[in-house]
Amino acid sequence: MGNRQVPKKILVAVTGASGMLYLQSFLRKIEELEVVVHGICSEAGAKVLGMEKGLLPRELPTVSSWFDCRDFAAPPASGSSGYDAMLILPCSMGTLAAIAAGMSANLIQRSADVMLKERKELVLVVRETPFNRTHLKNMLTAHDAGAVICPPMPAFYLQPASLEEAADTFSWRLADQVGLEVPGRRRWGAEE
Ligand SMILES: Cc1cc2nc3c(=O)[nH]c(=O)nc-3n(C[C@H](O)[C@H](O)[C@H](O)COP(=O)(O)O)c2cc1C
Q1: What CATH number is attached to the domain comprising 163?
Q2: What contacts 22, CB < 8 A, 6 or more positions away?
Q3: Which residues approach ligand 1 with their CB closer than 6 A?
């Protein structure tokens, strides 16, 4: 994590891609940390969260306020709101495309655009398989604009014994990306 500043306020956006296990894992991992977490969930995000986890966004841990995805007057729509980092977890190909094109057509897309213009950390947990050429081009465009493309890939070399443990290994990586030190984080080579 080097000299990176510890974030005080982060934004977690949920879109309609598969992988809500990773969202739940990450929010649990940062639950005890001194960080304010606000959320935005797209309509498709809420649908997939319900299908995969049987949960509503407000039933997730750690997020203290949820903003309406259609509300362009909500704080994250402005660069003055002062978020240190934003994660889109998981990030659909539709939202990725909108960010790459600078669409700002809902609060998630607008907030991501704000993070990029303010040169703040924006992490996209993109999920689709396989990727087509458009997906790959959009990832490169978003990367070149300053986003971190961070697909959910667990560290199987840490021998996770369950899906949840596999997801946790990815959550540690995500936490590293936004400068959060998660208790119990295992690091390769640190246990000998
Ligand atoms: C069960 C389910 C799983 C989906 N998984 C993905 C996925 O992994 N990646 C993706 O790009 N879209 C996926 N979609 C499609 C998106 O939800 C859809 O493109 C939606 O318009 C995305 O909107 P949003 O980006 O505003 O959330 C899935 C949809 C459903 C219902």
Answers
A1: 3.40.50.1950
A2: 89, 90, 125, 152, 167, 170, 171, 174
A3: 15-18, 42, 44-45, 47-48, 51, 92-95, 127-128
